[in-house]
Amino acid sequence: MTRTPQTTLLLLALCLGTLAGDTVSSATQARAADIVRRANASNSADTVTIPDSTVVADSVAMADTTEVADSAAVQEDQFQESLDSLFSVGRFAIDTFAWSNDKINSGRFDFTNWNDTTRIVLVDSAQGLLYAHAPGSVVTSNFGQRRWLWHYGVDTRLTRGDTVRSAFDGIVRVIQYDRRGYGNVVVVRHPNGLETVYGHLSKKLVMPNQKVRAGDALGLGGNTGHSTGPHLHLELRYFGEPFDPNWIIDFENHRLKGDTLVLTRDNFEYLVELRKAKWLVVRTGDTLGHIARRTGTTITKLCALNHITRRTLLRVGRKLRYQ
Predict the structure, then answer these.
(1) d(Cα 8, Cα 3) in Å, to the nearest integer?
(2) Which residue in 197, 244, 315, 316 has the most C-beta neighbors within 10 A?
């Protein structure tokens, strides 16, 4: 993937901190004493410590830019090696693209000019790569259009308190509470840009930057966030872009459809039209007629785009698509 200044800055910070319980070279520590002094050292061999971003920015601003540029590539390699050392599998590689412990949606790649075919080995017993199925085989809401919004994952029924496990080996990128959407959510970064998102948990059982294996407990099933009943919301993403989990997961039979995930631009083509959409928020006193005139469209088109009728009650604060 193309390196951005933000990615390089993050990788620089990660290299200069204490990684996976091992210290970096004394020369590197000396160049970044301020960062190391204020970073939280990790005592666990299963975590990677990331210093506070404001400290990183201050330290880099004071540093000689030529020195930073010259050492960035080496330090990125050092960080990647430290990250890879958390796992014994030779082909296991965590990509640090748009890495953030704070943002569920931290970045996405540009698939519009992507003409490649990507193959990601998910299961290989010889290398210790395994798959663990999420709880629940009954799909209650599938990937795709759901009423007036797009549903980027698959919902499966579960009982509150059911253990939700990591589908594959990886490192926890985000644990967060999103009251208007995911509720308690865990995001795990897997090899080769793959991520899984687990939403509506009643309890989170992991920490950011923690190593997890396929089958390790991430949390307990629940009904938090924007949810009408206990279920798991599961998303699969490739470098930030969601794709249909049904492409690789057989939910009914609790298994993968194949050991290798194959992705092309076709898996993300739905996003082209989706991102042309324009939305507004219903205000007090709005009617379909008012909105149609304000946006230069028709009531018929508004109804079609939002799967409603002329008699639908417009709730203040609801999002309506008008293009």
Answers:
(1) 7
(2) 197
Instruction: State the Cα–Cα distance between residues 248 and 236, nearest whole angstrom.
Output: 10
Q: In one letter, which amino acid is 44?
A: S
- Per-run averaged pLDDT (10 residues), the chain, 323 residues: 39 38 37 36 52 38 49 62 59 82 91 92 91 88 84 94 96 92 95 95 96 96 91 96 96 95 95 87 94 95 90 91 88
Classify domain 118-268 at the CATH superfamily level: Glucose Permease (Domain IIA) (2.70.70.10)
Contacts for 147 with CB less than 8 Å, ≥ 6 apart: 306, 307
Q: Can you count the helices (H) and strands (E) in the chain?
A: 8, 19
**Looking at the chain, how many residues does it have?**
323
Q: Is 67 helix (H, G, I), strand (E, B) or coil?
A: helix
User: Domain 279-321: which topology?
Assistant: Membrane-bound Lytic Murein Transglycosylase D; Chain A (3.10.350)
Bridge partner list, 128: none
Tokens 């939280």 locate to 40
Domain boundaries, the chain: 5-84, 118-268, 279-321
